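Chain A, query sequence.
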Amino acid sequence: MTTRRLPQLADSVRLLAEDDGSGVDILDRRVYPRDVSWVHCRTVEDVATAIRDMVTQSSGPVFAAAAGMVLAARANRSRPAGAARDAMREAGSLLAATRPTNNHVRDVVASTLAVLDDPAASEGGAALVESVTTAAEAIVARYRESSAAIGRHTAALIPDGSTVLTHCWADQFLIGAVTAAQDAGKSLSFVCTETRPYLQGARLTAPTLVEMGYTPTLITDGMVAGVLASGDVDVLLTAADRVTLDGHVVNKVGTFTAALAARHAGVPYLAMVDHPDAQSPTMDGVHMEERDGAELLTFAGAPTTVAGVVGRYPAFDATPPELVTKIVTDRGAFDPARVGEYFAATPAGEVAV
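Chain A, predicted structure.
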């Protein structure tokens, strides 16, 4: 039996053992694939900076935040138990604030800090490090299993022979869906949006699909409506940074535009997320991140306009549920208006991360 090699971006965050110097190595997705380099983070503060500065994104912050909490535990094990617990909570708050629109880092932090309720871990010292490390490893393993399940449920909804339009970088979810489609013997084609300004579609999605054996077609974000209207696309497929309980899909800016065009063209839109956000019944209270508009004024390090121009970069948009065909989770596909039923299917005691 041949073992399938995972794409390089599937393993982009590495927690180093203390014997190997400790720290976290994060693949720098800002320069990938032109340059394959790693950013070494020695502290939880370094990890937070890396997430905030887009060294990693999509699924990457889940793994980075879990590793960052381990670094925090290592750094505070010699402190008195109460001070160590306070420092762990401060570290969690620092990480959770890095990308406020995406709820996954917040959830990772909450699951990791839950170990402080354990009497052994609350004593601090080596027990704290061991408990946090075990919790972080469980989070990573569960997220990978969840992503594979999302992939299987998604692949089941994509007909054989389909051309799939992607927007931005769906990371583990996309890898899971493509792997499941291949296992099912389905033949797919892909069209990827370039995804300005960080070019996640051009630099992350498209190269990963090449690694997985495809020849994806790359288009600019402004071409989406025309390509969908041409009839050459069968499915619109994205991830989601957050899904509200009433079915709004929050994702990379441009997703709403693509969903509008897909509805006009009669193309189904599938949004992948591990679980909806139990803390977001509606869009009220969801912080929609705006990044520095200066990020729009350059391309590959070179200015694209003249001095005096001001950029604006709303990093996310929200697609209303009536434009979404299915929200695909690790527990199956839901109609957007009924995605809150996800939690009715969650076994008692299990925490969705």
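The two ends are 33 Å apart (CA to CA). The longest strand covers residues 189-193.
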